[in-house]
Every structure is written in C-alpha cells, then in structure tokens.
Amino acid sequence: MGNLTQLNERIFxxxxxxxxxxxxxxxYIIKEEKITIVExxxxxxxxxxxxxxxxxxxxxxxxxxxxxxHIHLDHAGGAGLLLQHCPNAKVVVHPKGAxxxxxxxxxxxxxxxxxxxxxxxxxxxxxxxxxxxxxxxLDQEELEIGRNCSxxxxxxxxxxxxxxxxxxxxxxxxxTGDTIGIYYHELVKDNIELYLPSTSPNQFRPDAMLESAKRxxxxxxxxxxxxxxxxxxxxxxxxxxxxxxxxxxxxAGKQSFIEHPLATEGEHKNFIKExxxxxxxxxxxxxxxxxxxxxxxxxxxxxxxxxxxxVDFLQKEK
Length: 318
Prior knowledge:
- The protein is an alpha/beta fold.
- Helices cover about 40% and strands about 20% of the residues.
- It is built from 10 helices and 15 strands.
- The radius of gyration is 19 Å and the shape is globular.
C-alpha cells in the first residue's frame, strides 16, 4: 500500500502525487455504507485514487459521494474526471463553488494565469460536472453516509470564499482543506511539525482565516485531515502555529509596501517571499534542520503562490 495509508478504522489517506511530488496533496476514502471520497486533487492524480479503490476492493461504481473542500484545482480539478470512473457518485461542494464545477472556464483561466505553460501537465483535463450531479451543502448542514454517521459542513472562508470544512463525528476529526494551513510532511521523519498558512490569491483574508480556525477549534476535534498533507492529532500545535505564522506572512507584505512603495507586483512578491523565507529558515535552523533539506524546495514553491495572495490582499485593502 505504497500510496495508501490507513489512518483509523474507516479513513484512508491516498498520496495523490500532486505536482509529481510525494506527500504533497492527499485524497481521503471514508469506508462507510456510502463510500465517500474527500478531495480529488488534480486530474493527473485520479489514477492514484482508482488504484487505491482497487487495493481496498472497492468498485468505483459503489462510490456514492465525492466531496471537495473548495474548488481550487489542486483539490477539485480532478472531480469531473473521477466522476467518469464513479458514475453513481455525486459531487458535494460549497454553494459558492458549484457553478465553477459545472462550468470550469474561469477556473481554467485563473490557473493558466498563475501556472502558465505548466498548466497542461499539472491540471489537464478539467471536465465539467453536470448540474444534476452536484450537491450543495450550506453551513451546518449534514450528509448521511452511514446508519451511524452523518458528516457536518462548516463554512470556513479565509483561504477562499468557496471553502467549507467537513466534520466527521465518528473519528472526531475534520477535513480542513487549506483553511488552517499546510502540514509539511517532509519534516515528519525529523520529528518536526511545521504548519504554515496558505495565503494564495485571490480571496485570502487573514481575519476570516483566524475566525474559521477559531470555529474549528471550538468543535474540540481530535484530528485534522489536511489537504496538504495527512493527519495531525496535535491539534493545539496546529492552531498555535497558524496564530504564529499568519501575522508574519501579512507583516512581510506590509513591510514590502512600506519599504518599496514604487515596486511592481512581481517585485513585491519577491520581497515578501524573501522576508517570510528568512523567518522560516531561522525557525528551522533552531530545530537543527539543514538548509539543504528537501522541505525547502516545496516551501519555496508555496511561498511563490502565498506571496501573490498577500500582494492581492493588501492591494484590495488600500
């Protein structure tokens, strides 16, 4: 089970190999009476999900629900393609995301603007989902997936306006997508936990992110299932680090705008990335993590996108 990890009695984590990297983006299978998949990653990840279903001797036609926390392509881009393999399933989505799954043209345009020539290899194809195959869940609505289990949906903006988190009462865990950050699995073997906020464009709002985190925290969960990547049961540390790093990210943006008032967007992005990376490097130096550690490569990629979101947020705040 190289790409499949059993997290508890009924929840399995699939390494979806987003961006061609291990332990980058996860999809989850909940083995209930109504087989449920949470997150699809992008279309190139779908073979890994199909392979995992086979390993668990689950026929794709028995999958009842495919849930996406939000519609960014690294979480939902493969939903339409997966649906072709799971013809009896319906896709559950936030009310602000449904129309973009049925007509993904704006999603495609936005991703092409960010990823340019890499778009096809990272995301293609993006298949529209028929409206009759979509289920919208509002804040605090539920979805029964077994006689003894209903999932509960909570509106959790901050990373994106079209984001909800899904609470599973059986495991007392919650699928948080990107709302409360990224878990850097590359450091697990070093016994280091690093959780950083995901501040990508163009709906990042720090106050909403903190409010969503507070809401999740008040549920008293025992486990957090991250979109990137895996499960953490050290819940207090997750919230502690979000509160630590989020102001550092935003203040780096403010510093750039103060010190470089005539800079272009691209220049601001580079300044912000440099400031944040300096803080992270100092933090990891104190943990005796060498600067050639593999985690720095993915942190650098993430900060490219995060710094763009910070620039976008601060420009809107002017």
